[in-house]
Amino acid sequence: MKSKWLWALLVVVAGGALYAGTVLATPSAGQSTTILAQSTFDPLNLSGYSLTATPGPLGTSRPNLWLSWIKTVGQSDLYVVDNKFVPGGTSGWHSHAGPSIIFVVAGTITNYTSDDPTCTPHVYSAGSGFVDPGGKDEHMLRNEGSVQAETIAVQFLPQGATRKIDEPDPGNCHF
């Protein structure tokens, strides 16, 4: 008798979790997504540097150092993604398994993060960009302007990972 109740409880809990995940997810609205490119890469170990001189006062120079390093362990899926947002469009709350570099190519896009209790808007206009660190970073992009906004994202993901994971509304932004 006890095992029947335990099984019934497990079925209710599992069903409730499935229902909550479906109902509480915040999918996109007014957003269209086109995958421009996708490829699987073997482990990456990319580095680059530049050492240049910048003119200083009275004919002196100062060295400028620029350094970049991208290293992955295991294969990666890289995507180039074109996202277009109509005025009022939103990506919905979501996350990614890896980092993304986002270019704003048209209009203005506003980024909100779930871990910000004050729901501070981070506004990016055409010609600017930002980084989504991926992992546990849950965020939402919104077009709060009056013209279409467009972003191009370069995403680095573990091979086979879901590209975009819809997340529930964290409750910190009251739109």
% residues in beta strands: over 45%
How many structural domains in the coordinates? 1
Low-confidence stretches: 6-22
Derived structural class: mainly beta
| Average residue-wise pLDDT | 88
Oligomer: single chain
**Morphology:** globular
Count of distinct strands? 12
At the fold tier of CATH, the topology name is: Jelly Rolls
Q: In sequence order, what are the helices and strands, one letter per element?
A: HEEEEEEEEEEEE
How would you describe the overall organization of this protein?
- With about 180 residues, the protein is mostly beta strands.
- The chain has a single domain (about 1-165), classed as Jelly Rolls (Sandwich).
- It contains 1 helix and 12 strands, in the order H-E-E-E-E-E-E-E-E-E-E-E-E.
- The chain has one helix spanning about 1-25, and strands at about 30-40, 45-55, 60-70, 75-90, 95, 100-105, 110-115, 120-125, 130, 140, 150-160, 165.
- The chain has a 5-stranded antiparallel β-sheet with strand order 1-4-11-6-9, with no helix packed on it. A 3-stranded antiparallel β-sheet has the order 8-7-10, with no helix packed on it.
- A hairpin with an 8-residue loop joins strand 7 (about 110-115) and strand 8.
- The longest helix has 23 residues, at about 1-25.
- It starts with a helix and ends in a 9-residue tail after the last strand.
